[in-house]
Specification:
alpha+beta, PH-domain like, 2 domains, four-stranded antiparallel sheet, three-stranded antiparallel sheet
């Protein structure tokens, strides 16, 4: 089974609204502030206000263009053994279903954890609602099968990884006691 999921175009419209609000409101507040503080100045602030508003339009357009590039080239591929995330300017990242130890739903999406670390992979909530729910249910099924014999972890709960095996030595392990040496 191989299926590719893409970000929902309806969510891109919400991103456009957010960009307009962020850059538009910030630009207007900054322009009003400049006009207010420079009102008694001998030089006119109009050139500065115009430059500020042009910068805000440019940065807003650039932010929207970056988001559109992400929307156009982002993909989340579902295979029989895991998920592969492909997004522009980042290397592909993969996670195997049998390595998922926990899942946590947040406002950004569904964060997946493994024994190596928490929140190492995300299924974003910018997918269509149906696709997001499908992947969430699929991850929950794999979590239950991964945790047979132990208490099942459902989405929203986090299991602390077993820290008895670690690549980092415990404090003072293998460190010689050099209290007699002179460090001056």
């Amino acid at each position: 089974m191989q299926k590719t999921f893409r970000l929902d175009p309806k969510q891109l419209k919400k991103q456009l609204r957010n960009v307009i609000l962020i850059y538009g409101v910030t630009g207007i507040i900054a322009a009003v502030f400049m006009l207010y503080t420079q009102r008694e100045s001998a030089s006119s602030p109009w050139l500065l206000v115009g430059a500020l508003l042009l910068m805000m339009v440019y940065f807003g357009y650039r932010a929207y263009r970056q988001r559109k590039e992400i929307w156009d080239s982002y993909s989340l591929e579902l295979t029989d053994d895991g998920l592969t995330l492909c997004q522009p300017k980042y290397p592909n990242s993969q996670i195997a279903f049998n390595s998922i130890s926990a899942a946590e739903e947040s406002r950004d999406g569904l964060w997946l954890s493994t024994a190596q670390g928490n929140r190492v992979f995300i299924i974003p909530n910018y997918l269509s609602d149906f696709d997001f729910q499908y992947l969430k249910d699929l991850v929950n099924q794999h979590l239950e099968s991964n945790n047979r014999g132990a208490a099942a972890i459902t989405i929203g709960e986090i299991r602390k990884p077993d820290l008895s095996i670690s690549a980092v030595p415990t404090a003072a392990e293998g460190v010689a006691d050099d209290s007699d040496s002179d460090l001056n």
